[in-house]
Amino acid sequence: PTTTTTVTRIADVITGAGDVNTFNSEEGVLFFEGYATNIVNTLISISDTTQPNRVQFKVSSPTQFTFYLYAGNVLKYATAANVTSTSSIHKIAMVWKLNGFYAYIDGVKYIATQQNYTFTSPLNNLDLSNNVTSLPFYGKVKQLKVFKTALSDAELISLTS
Question: Average pLDDT, whole number, for the chain?
Fold first, then answer.
């Protein structure tokens, strides 16, 4: 607390959350529970540090999340899901696995693709941004987890409900 002057609090940053042994480049789940306080252009990603290979979700508008998968610096998949408000608490799970990429929001499977892709380098970095300086996530995070294996549909419905 301050008494005579206003002091801006520095944003929290995740460092040392894992390495190539923590994350799985062939399959996995990025789970988020919380909400965005910055209405647009804020995101969370798992990448290979240099960004050519990544899975991420972005707050695209006050009522829309967009999900991305890049492999070898090529956008393999991008799609949006509409919600009532991105500033309300949501449970989101983004899943990548061999020949599949999909997302669940609040217990509902919104997006699915069977597109083929191969990451050209391993995923090893969890960021509350696109990278350290670009599009930082502003919001409230209740939970942020990474699962090393893809979960079943029943497990994902339960996790996000």
Answer: 84
